[in-house]
Write a structure and sequence with these properties.
The protein folds into 2 domains: 12-51 and 158-220 and 310-357, FAD/NAD(P)-binding domain, CATH 3.50.50; 95-154 and 224-304, D-Amino Acid Oxidase, Chain A, domain 2 (2-Layer Sandwich). Helix content is 26%, strand content 28%. The protein has 8 helices and 19 strands. Strands 3, 6, 7, 8, 13, 14, 15, 16 and 17 form a 9-stranded mixed sheet that branches. The longest helix has 19 residues, at 71-89. The radius of gyration is 21 Å and the shape is globular. It starts with 11 loop residues before the first strand and ends in a 14-residue tail after the last helix. The relative contact order is 0.18.
Amino acid sequence: MTGTNTHKTHSHFDVIIVGQGLAGSFLAWEMINAGQQILVIDNHHHGSSSKVAAGIINPITGHRINLTSGFVEFLDIAKTTYQQLAQKFGQDFLKPIDQQRLIKNPGQQNYYLKRLEQEDYHPFVHTLTTQVDQKSSLLKNAEFGIGNIQQSYRVDTQALLKSIGEWLTEQDALWHEKLDYQDIQINNDNVQISAQKKVSANKIIFCEGFQAINNPWLKNLPFKCAKGDILTVQLDQASKTMLNWGHWLLPTSKETQQAYLGSTYHWQDMNLEPDNTLAKELIDSLEKHTTLKATMVDHRTGIRPTTINRKQLIGLHPQHKNLYCFNGFGSKGCLTIPHYAKLFTRHFSHQQALSELMPEIDTILSVNSVS
């Protein structure tokens, strides 16, 4: 895929994308390669969960050891997209990693044993390690065993955003600017923006993550944003696997003793300043549930654009037929965004109805009070 978007003198575009987090980046990638003339406007990822995300793709979640709905289909598309990106930028963004999960009580142990018997779980849920042979694990207090989870992955989100950002910049397709909503004029047949430069487009797509709660056209969508903290830590010994005990530890590579440690969930506090109390909470949890000791190297905070019903917010504004939203991917963005970016792009490049491309999503946005 060698799409180009060269428009050094353009002031009118097919599409303006607001936000260059994971959602905006994948969408820009797909649209340019589909021949769309686009402009991306981004405020240096301010508060973006994409910039701080550890990039975990995890097939098994929850107390009941459930396989993520649609995981096989999502992963197939994601792998193809990450491979295309690797070929373009000469960097492997997607890396597999084994996962060891602490089984915390008898009920969870029963669920795990049931999953071992279910054929559709066989590619993902492997043996339950008992206390007799747990010496090879860094997890401790494993009275009910340690589950071995396969087909987990880590996405290097920071490298991915940087590579796509540079690619967009080379094509004069990225503005780093804090957009004032008052500078956006939504007309019947186009969208106009009066900022550093005056530009217009046929359509505008907001991929703003949690910032959409301030968007006058989208602020009443059913967001339930969650603040999250992730630490980069230096370990006293290397871990070659992802460790999961409720919180998690994810090695940055197999060659170092650095790892990501996360994550917290806070539903009320949207303050982006790192809190030392939360950092201590994560390190204490690590040392309680593993044999590892850790020293904090870095502390990052971001806001996840999660939703009340856990459904993506993809679709068209009910009153403005050239205003779209592509948002609400939460903690599963590295897995699901590549799939939906391809479908969403098809809507623009092949004029296919969103309701046909994404029948599982209400693609006419329910903005209770529209502007």
